[in-house]
Amino acid sequence: MRSKLEARWASVMDKLNIAYRYEYQIFVTSLGQYLPDFFLPEFEAWMEIKPIFPSDVEQQKIIDVSILTNKVCFLLSGFPTSLNQQKGYLGLMVVKPDGSYFHTDFKAVLESLGDKKLAFISAVKFANAYPLKNQFFNISELMVIANLEALSINQYTHNKEVNKP
Which residues 6+ apart lie within 8 Å of 96 measured at CB? Predict the structure, then answer.
């Protein structure tokens, strides 16, 4: 990894059993070449990591990648250590393949769910299910999808247990 921040996020993904490919593909965007930090095959999504809230140029590059690849893109801003601390912000920008996006406080989503991997799944499903208006979303709107996803996972697990030979 080229930065400590990328290595820290890779470690978090390893602990969550989220498969990733590091600096997997370079793209030519409207603002020049761009190499997203991670590709997440399980989610069919790209992910870029920034230490602070991204500039307009950085945001436009990830929007371009989403449009070019027809895939959801995550732009995380902050340090994974803030996941285990009371203070600290963890921003998330989710971009849909049509170029629309939303921003949210991802730390609040993670704390509400208590399941980090479910938070990623929910963010992708939310982006795919709802039209986005390029705004900041309250976590309650994302939680609807998260709760439905949790019910779906629990139902699937329950059905597997009931149908054991």
Answer: 66, 72, 127, 128, 132
For 23-41, the pLDDT digits (tens) are 999 999 999 999 999 998 9
Q: Name residue 94's beta-bridge partners.
A: 74, 102
Contacts for 103 with CB less than 8 Å, ≥ 6 apart:
91, 92, 93, 135, 136, 137
Domain count, the chain: 1
Residue 65 pLDDT? 95
**Per-state percent for the chain, helix, strand, coil, to nearest 5:** 45, 20, 30
Residue-range definition of the domain harbouring residue 77:
4-162
Asked if the model's pLDDT at residue 149 lies above 80, the reply is no
CB 101 within 8 A of CB 63: yes
